[in-house]
Specification:
With about 210 residues, the chain is α+β, with helices and mostly antiparallel strands. It contains 3 helices and 10 strands, in the order αβαβββββββββα.
């Protein structure tokens, strides 16, 4: 009788643990939203790889972690009687897997990355739809994916040091199947700006 009770207790504990793990896995997922590319990033661009590398204080291979916050500046449009965004960005934690240029002691630590993308509920003829607005030419980083980033630091009012890509999408590459690949938003016009060429150089240098 004691053995039966112990067996039932073990089964119950396992069920609770498995149920809890399943809940945590679901909570860790991020909602994939439609991307609306707005454009208008005020970041400069470069036309040669050396300028891209020289302009970055930190070049890293990272794994994207959770998004922690976002800030959106809005303006009121009286003809539609609602507030609309005029600028904004989101903050995401990144785990540094490898430092290519910069402080090697950062390997294995996490940093905060600022990108000019944020979630917003826009009005449609069917009601409202939650989307991701992007002023950045690069697609928003996605949790669990790896990237190679060319970064410079920026100190927030709180004193926290955050990082961003000085050259917008030219400093952001997804790292996929052992290669750096472009992650450009649909609708971005390169107008002879090198981007794929920089990815090719990256792969030649660091593979």
């Amino acid at each position: 009788m004691v053995c039966v009770k112990k067996s039932l207790l073990i089964v119950l504990v396992l069920c609770i643990c498995l149920s809890g793990c399943g809940t945590r896995a679901e909570e860790s997922k991020e909602e994939a939203l439609p991307i609306v590319y707005i454009g208008g990033s005020d970041r400069p661009y470069v036309f040669d790889y050396n300028s891209l590398e020289d302009g970055a204080q930190l070049i890293v291979k990272v794994t994207a972690l959770e998004k922690t916050d976002q800030q959106v500046r809005t303006t009121y449009l009286d003809w539609v009687d609602r507030y609309e965004p005029v600028s904004g960005g989101s903050y995401r934690k990144l785990l540094i897997d490898q430092v290519i240029k910069g402080d090697k002691e950062l390997e294995g630590t996490d940093i905060t990355f600022l990108q000019e993308c944020f979630d917003w509920e826009q009005d449609t003829h069917k009601g409202t739809e939650k989307v991701t607005y992007c002023y950045s030419g690069a697609r928003p980083l996605e949790k669990g994916k790896q990237y190679i980033l060319f970064l410079i630091p920026k100190k927030a009012e709180s004193g926290e040091v955050m990082y961003y890509s000085k050259y917008d999408f030219q400093g952001i590459y997804e790292y996929k199947e052992g290669k750096a690949v472009c992650c450009l938003n649909e609708g971005v016009e390169l107008n002879d700006l090198p981007y794929q060429e920089f990815a090719d150089i990256l792969n030649d240098l660091y593979q």
